[in-house]
TrEMBL record:
<dbReference type="Pfam" id="PF13858">
    <property type="entry name" value="DUF4199"/>
</dbReference>
<keyword id="KW-0472">Membrane</keyword>
<feature type="transmembrane region" description="Helical">
    <location>
        <begin position="7"/>
        <end position="28"/>
    </location>
</feature>
<feature type="transmembrane region" description="Helical">
    <location>
        <begin position="34"/>
        <end position="52"/>
    </location>
</feature>
<feature type="transmembrane region" description="Helical">
    <location>
        <begin position="72"/>
        <end position="95"/>
    </location>
</feature>
<dbReference type="InterPro" id="IPR025250">
    <property type="entry name" value="DUF4199"/>
</dbReference>
<keyword id="KW-0812">Transmembrane</keyword>
<keyword id="KW-1133">Transmembrane helix</keyword>
<feature type="transmembrane region" description="Helical">
    <location>
        <begin position="143"/>
        <end position="164"/>
    </location>
</feature>
<protein>
    <submittedName>
        <fullName>DUF4199 domain-containing protein</fullName>
    </submittedName>
</protein>
Length: 171
């Protein structure tokens, strides 16, 4: 099981970053960034389904419990999420230290273009300033980044475990 979990977890991590890479390099417009980002996470975590089928059919005699299937998905999620967080931290601190400044400027420009009130823009500016302050701390930055990806992997793990569980057939 360890080999499968490592293989699929280490493969899913970089795949989950595709959406971010497309948005950060302006290949995809930033207004679609969240959609593309979460879509790439779902594609990456679809490997959980493949890994559970692989383990069930090739290593476990065609059977698997919900718990074991979920555990495989959980481990893949933890590995892939950690890869995602490490890539993000390296990208943010070494290559894009102004990422949040640009993000905030784009966000506020979109609010103004959308006709948001001055109070709304002021409130959003204050909220974004708080996030920018938190992002200066690498530990908080990592925790916030985990909250982006971890829930997606957990949901895919639950769904995969529910679909793929198969009890042994007794003669």
């Amino acid at each position: 099981m360890k080999k499968i979990v490592l293989r699929y977890g280490l493969l899913a991590g970089p795949i989950s970053m595709i959406g971010f890479a497309l948005t950060a390099t302006h290949i995809v417009d930033s207004k679609y960034g969240m959609l593309v980002g979460y879509a790439s996470m779902i594609v990456a975590f679809s490997l959980i389904y493949v890994a559970v089928v692989n383990y069930r059919d090739n290593y476990n005699g065609g059977t698997i419990t919900f718990g074991k299937a979920f555990l495989i998905g959980l481990y893949i999620t933890l590995i892939a999420s950690t890869v995602y967080v490490v890539i993000w931290l390296i990208s943010y601190y070494f290559f894009m230290p102004d990422y949040l400044d640009k993000y905030m400027a784009n966000y506020l420009a979109d609010l103004k273009a959308g006709g948001a009130s001055a109070e709304k823009i002021k409130a959003e500016t204050a909220e974004m300033a708080g996030y920018m302050e938190m992002y200066k701390n690498p530990f908080l930055n990592a925790l916030i980044t985990y909250t982006e990806i971890l829930p997606v992997g957990l949901i895919v793990s639950l769904i995969s475990a529910a679909i793929l569980r198969r009890k042994p057939q007794f003669a």
